[in-house]
Amino acid sequence: MSGIPFFGCARAGDFEQAHDRMIAEQLIPRGIEDTRVLAAMRKVRRHEYVPKAVRDRAYDDGPLPIGHGQTISQPYIVAVMTQVLEPKDNDKVLEIGTGSGYQAAVLAEIVDQVYTIEIVGPLADEARAHLKKQGYTNITVRHGDGYRGWPEHAPFDKIIVTAAPPEVPPRLVEQLKVGGRMVLPVGEGYQQLIVLTKTDQGVVTETLFPVRFVPMVPGP
Ligand code: SAH
């Protein structure tokens, strides 16, 4: 993926400048044009969601380690997946793979309710702490297996999966509303980013472009 490398600076006031450059250099030139998505990406401070050791790289053009062998996605990927989801004010969204909580925060700036599931307990706890510190009251984090979805809150208007399953998890399709959209990376190794729409007649899938996510691990 092309882009201008940017090396952030750890001095406090410089986060703001690095954040602005991320929008101007990584998102807008690559086709992020939905004003709600751009506003959410401007509002959510990525440096609040990454470990201190990598905070100076918070606005770099790539994923970053968040511990437990996991990563926070590249800002562009967060933005493009959010844009493809076509989020609306009244939507109830399910996210699989909370990680740092960053993607959940971006969604929560746009939609009514976000439910997010993380399989690694300590990451779920850390994400909850980040989101509480930022004042979100419309995000619920659960420690559990995303393959099961969250039947108590289904059906969802939108579902976003930020770890890669080998194929589309059937229970997530079941928990999507008719008219709803789901975006997810599918496959092993390199994956394809897929957008799936549920209609009265069945499911329509469109393949977008190749991506690389951590695998969605099977639950216990
Ligand atoms: N959306 C995150 C990045 C996700 S990285 C962010 O904004 O930071 C993918 C996450 O999916 C990892 O934290 C990983 O532990 C989690 N994961 C992997 N398999 C899972 C499963 N079966 N259910 C729920 N979470 C899973």
Please characterize this protein's 3D structure.
Helices cover about 25% and strands about 25% of the residues. It is α/β, with parallel strands linked by helices. The protein has one domain (about 15-210): Rossmann fold (3-Layer(aba) Sandwich), CATH 3.40.50. The strands form 2 sheets. Strands 5-4-3-6-7-8-9 form a 7-stranded mixed sheet. A two-stranded antiparallel sheet has the order 1-2. The termini are far apart. The model has no long low-confidence stretch (mean pLDDT about 95). Bound molecules: S-adenosyl-L-homocysteine.
Write the SSE topology.
Layout: H1 14-27, H2 35-43, E1 64-67, E2 70-72, H3 75-85, E3 92-96, H4 102-108, E4 113-118, H5 121-133, E5 139-143, E6 156-161, H6 170-174, E7 176-186, E8 191-199, E9 202-211
Parallel strand pairs: 3-4, 3-6, 4-5, 6-7
Antiparallel strand pairs: 1-2, 7-8, 8-9
Features:
220 residues; alpha/beta; Rossmann fold; seven-stranded mixed sheet; two-stranded antiparallel sheet; 6 helices
Structure summary:
This protein is an alpha/beta fold and 220 residues long. 27% of the residues lie in helices and 27% in strands. S-adenosyl-L-homocysteine (SAH) binds next to strand 2, helix 4 and strand 4.
> What count of structural domains?
1
Distance between the termini: 35 Å
Q: What is the helix tally?
A: 6
DSSP helix fraction: 25-40%
